[in-house]
Amino acid sequence: MGHGDGRGRMVSPAGADDTGTRILHVDMDAFYAAVEVLDDPSLRGLPLIIGGADGRSVVSSASYEARRYGVRSAMPVGQAMRLCPTARIVTPHFHRYQEVSRQVMTIFESFTPLVEPLSVDEAFLDVQGVRRLWGSPGRIAELIRERVEREVGITCSVGVAATKHVAKMASTAAKPNGMLIVPAQRTQEFLGPQSVRAMWGVGPKAAESLEARGIRTISDIRESSPEMLERAVGPALSARLAQLARGEDARTVETERVEKSIGHEETFDHDISDRVFLRAELLRLADRVAARLRRAEWETATVSIKVRFDDFRTVNRSQTLAEPTAVGQRIGEAAQALFEQIERRDPIRLVGVRAEKLQPAGGGMLGLWDEDEDWRKVEGAVDDAVARFGNATITRARHLGRGDGRGAARHPKAHGLD
Q1: The domain containing residue 222 runs over which residues?
Q2: What is the side-by-side strand order in the sheet with 48-50?
Q3: Are 199 and 271 in the same domain?
Q4: How many Cα atoms occupy the beta-carbon half-sphere of 123 within 13 Å?
Q5: Residue 129 belongs to some domain of the structure
């Protein structure tokens, strides 16, 4: 299995057996860095860190030359520069990444209508129904790789398999710029020696819990008792991992993308200890989340917050609401209540609010009276004002004097994630 920097790369020879396969997972190679090189060829071959240069930013992406020094996404830029002092820091250009992503997705859709984007730089494709047009799944993967490189100018890696889970693992193993085909009858042979950390959906904590019990590979999962797996990761995940370890994955390629969550975050120039200020920031973020929910005609059933401390330790908390809502006041109150549950009082560098378990607005049953009626009217008026005059037209009184409304004047470098 690849290590994220190209070590341990596995690729299939030309004409490899693709019997029983139908799913492709296509993943651009170091996408942000590749787009920067595409626009500035003088960067080619250099260790690149895509991120802010202020030392408080985190790495958005890194070229393979930088990854070989241990640089990883979400790592503080300062730490990345200590690992790779010769790296070039490049400011990200997200609008440009979106443009290139649209080009790539258009190529995918020219082969099959069954395309499920996972992010700007990866997607699943189901090619079973287009074999007569383009050939076998392995051949289609080759054609896609050729067209992306020729027409867009960047490279991608492709996993070809019978299921989504195995295809995603295969594309990771093939990076960079490779293709790995796992025929259906060799699925367990491919999976067996792979680390549990390579499984899609196994995070660091789950991996550590499995490894603490001697479950280090996917074959170890297959050989473990259900009771041991359940003690390690709980009943829901243990049952899922047992299925995936056997190569069982019934998930299909979903062409209609349903937004699963909406959130905003703020990273401050200076670590903040002022709890009153932080509570106000959570409410402001909740207002932004709620406005997006209303525009999309969604309501949220669960509110979560993210708090990152000055030592980069991150804490997440979530709460299921009594009734789904798109009211910023209600979301903000839930976020503030979650914040008060966090006992640690160290300085904070980032806070975030996220609406999860979304559902169409108006789907819930209203009681005899609506406790949020007044807030709905106020926030509806705000929505109307924003639609007519722009985002900076109106805000809560407690947020006045905070720069452009995206953060406090005291801490002007706050920003949101869309």
Answers
A1: 193-241
A2: 61-62, 48-50, 88-90
A3: no
A4: 25
A5: no
10 Å CB burial of residue 227 (0-12, 13-18, 19+) is exposed
- 235 lies in the same domain as 282: no
Strand ranges, E, within 248-347: 261-272, 298-309, 314-325
Are the C-beta atoms of residues 141 and 24 closer than 8 Å to each other? yes
The C-alpha atoms of residue 269 and residue 412 are separated, in whole angstroms, by 7
Same domain, 268 and 367: yes
Mind listing the pLDDT tens digit for each residue in 278-335? 999 999 999 999 999 988 888 999 999 999 998 888 899 999 888 889 999 999 999 9
For residue 18, tell me if it sits in a domain.
no
What is the C-alpha radius of gyration for the chain, rounded to an integer number of angstroms?
24
Position 409, amino acid:
A
Q: Is there a single domain that holds both residue 281 and residue 390?
A: yes
Give catalytic status of residue 122 as yes or no. yes
Residue 90 and residue 92: Cα distance in Å, rounded? Answer: 6
- Among 65, 116, 122, 142, the active-site one is 122
